[in-house]
Amino acid sequence: MFHTVSLGRTVGKEEFLERVPALRQGLLLQQSRLRDADFPVICLFAGVDGAGKLATTNLLNEWMDPRLLVTRAYSEPSDEESERPAFWRFWRDLPPRGRVGLFLSAWYSAPLVSHVRTGDDKTLHRFLDEIVDLEQMLVADGALILKFWMHLDRRGQEKRFARLKKDPLQAWRVTEQGRANLEQYDRFIASAETIIHRTSTGTAPWHLVEGTDHRYRSLHVAGILHGALEARLSERALVAPTGPPPADAAPAPPVTPPSSDSRTLFDTLDLSVTLEQDDYKRRLKEARERMGLLHRRARERGISTLLVFEGMDAAGKGGAIRRITSALDARDCQVIPIAAPTDEERGHHYLWRFWRHLPRAGRLTVFDRSWYGRVLVERLEGYATEAEWRRAFAEIRTFEGELTDSGIVLLKFWLHISPDEQLRRFEERKATPWKAWKLTDEDWRNRARWTEYERAAHDMIERTSTRNAPWIVVEAVDKRYARVKTIEAVCERLERALGPEAPPTRKQPKKNANGKGKS
User: Fold this and answer.
1) Is 511 among the domain residues?
2) CATH number for the domain that contains residue 83
3) How many angstroms separate the CA atoms of 497 and 485, rounded?
4) 208 in a domain, yes or no?
5) What pTM does this model have?
6) Do 119 and 57 reside in the same domain of the chain?
7) Do residues 422 and 312 make contact, with C-beta atoms less than 8 angstroms apart?
8) CB 41 within 8 A of CB 229
9) Domain count of the fold of the chain
10) Chain segment 354-392, per-residue pLDDT in tens
11) Alpha carbon of 323 to those of 112, 273, 283, 293, 415: distances in Å?
12) Residue whose C-alpha is closest to residue 496's, from 414, 367, 410
């Protein structure tokens, strides 16, 4: 494959100086138009060491407005990064809509280097599958992805290294890793060929760039970027802008169930289950102590926990969350309440704001509402198109798979109550001064669409309950029962993750002769 890139193409100095002004003006013009567009541009630079990745990125920062560029380069992950899933640091840095991101040594670097070292094909292809899923997810959300492989043949790389080493100001660019890659050039190129063939898709293709002549390389990359921007912006100009309906717009039409049988899994729940006060106090106390001990063990072993709470309005999510967090060390847990996205969050893929809040190793994070808003409220209120919320089921499964594959303990709770119980709780909130703020006009509006929300929640559970991230449906009419069931489920899942080691038990007081404990 790479022999088609090693053709010795060059551009003379006069031609270069003649073509640059128009190309720079075009890039700045497209960058200005991009500011008001509804998509980001992601440029990935990979390739042979010394082939011009850094030089090209620096040049684009010179030719374009750097204030509108997001430039990131990646090396070995920091402690903060290594304690989270592999893609966390890339999601965190993704450019917002209207900006261009220039990424060096991004998500292709680790699988390439690892495969050269180990030759593990199975691990490589698993990682490449995850990359393809990621890029398809970003493209489906509108991103324009341009991938550049900067190439030199072996002789060209040797000459480039020799020239750099002679220059005191450039010698630092010849790294130990670069020399190691040169010694294994054939293995490096074979691995790269596999990666490019697997991940060059119709929506995110690779562009192979000959890196021998810096003038040719610069014009070629900048020309591809300019052409892609011009084509996408012209295409977008022909499409009427879309977005969430205004606040005073009429409600979206109801979603029709897929069949005449409108029953859902919620019709099978026994919402009459209760827990007596004495049993509640005993089991809650035992479960909270058990959870606290298990979480400390998880903290010591670097096992993170992620809890997701969804459910009908007033189903008791807040009360359940408080019983969990108050039993833990406040330094090691965090609650993330999810409301309408901010302007910054709307400028990114909808999963971006959730990636940002993933816990470090050993910590526990609770999401009060979550990424499932895409297939619930955004689906029913028309904030997401049908194509967007339908593809979200697969995107969410992919996202959660990356979390659990990285070792995160993920539990998802749906708290369910009856319409009558919800009405009772609404009335109680309205009459209680310190609870009245919880009741909003939106709550009443959502209540009027109860059947549609149940249908959407049924679809959500059906399509996103997996072996490693199953949904736990909690009968929540009785708050005591719901709280205990939730905490005991957390304990059971932590025990499976931690293994058979038994947590310590509270030391029992010594007995007197009459059988009573000593004071």
Assistant:
1) no
2) 3.40.50.300
3) 19
4) yes
5) 0.85
6) yes
7) yes
8) yes
9) 2
10) 999 999 999 999 999 999 999 999 999 999 999 999 999
11) 46, 20, 12, 15, 15
12) 410
